[in-house]
Design a protein that fits this description.
Blueprint: H1 2-15, E1 21-31, H2 35-41, E2 46-64, E3 67-80, E4 85-95, E5 103-114, E6 126-128, E7 133-135, E8 145-156, E9 164-173, E10 187-198
Antiparallel strand pairs: 1-2, 1-10, 2-3, 3-4, 4-5, 5-8, 6-7, 8-9, 9-10
Length: 199
């Protein structure tokens, strides 16, 4: 069934005209690190918790200089250590593609709603077996509703109406105490890979 859906989406994307609408699909694993160490030092260690997401992406008309803007709605299902549903809405600013280089960078900001408290966002006092760390501060109080942030690099095959492939950091965050206590910080990170099919 999954193969038939994939073949259908690829066929539609090949024969359709350029569109501002896209179907998006991605999957990835939980990474046990805060956003700053990931970004600056590449400090990544995976955990046995997977995320599968389907979504809809829409390109907005207004542009500013070298930036394009998009909105995206996502529905994800967690498997492995966590087993809940996540819904995200995000506004994305994306760089234009440079000359013949088919690459663009995206930064997104929005909201994330989990159907329950994500267990890997809860740090227990003492030794945290899931994270492999010691925590001598109060128990972390994460929330189902947190900030959603994405950082993305996408690549487009230089053929009209072709799909785009991307790697993305899918980040839920308390924004230093805005949504939950700031110390230790709440949230989670998934390093994901996916594809966008124009429709």
């Amino acid at each position: 069934m999954k193969k038939r859906i994939l073949i259908f989406l690829i066929t539609v994307s090949i024969f359709s005209k350029e569109s501002r609408h896209s179907v998006i699909s991605y999957t990835g694993k939980f990474i046990n690190s805060d956003l700053v160490p990931i970004s600056l030092y590449g400090d990544i260690s995976y955990k046995k918790s997977n995320l599968y997401v389907l979504g809809y992406n829409y390109h907005l008309k207004p542009k500013i200089s070298f930036l394009n803007f998009e909105i995206e709605g996502l529905v994800g299902k967690h498997y492995g250590f966590m087993n809940h549903v996540e819904v995200d809405g995000v506004f994305i600013a994306r760089t234009n593609r440079w000359s013949r280089i088919p690459i663009s960078f995206g930064f997104g900001e929005g909201l994330s709603l989990a159907s329950e408290k994500p267990q890997l966002e809860v740090r227990k006092f003492g030794f945290d077996r899931e994270r492999g760390t010691f925590n001598f501060i109060n128990i972390e109080e994460t929330r189902p509703v947190l900030n959603f942030l994405l950082l993305e690099l996408d690549v487009k095959i230089p053929i009209e109406s072709s799909p785009k492939f991307f790697v993305r950091l899918h980040h839920r965050s308390g924004i230093w105490g805005t949504y939950c206590p700031p110390d230790p910080p709440c949230g989670s990170n998934f390093l994901v890979y996916g594809v966008k099919f124009p429709i």
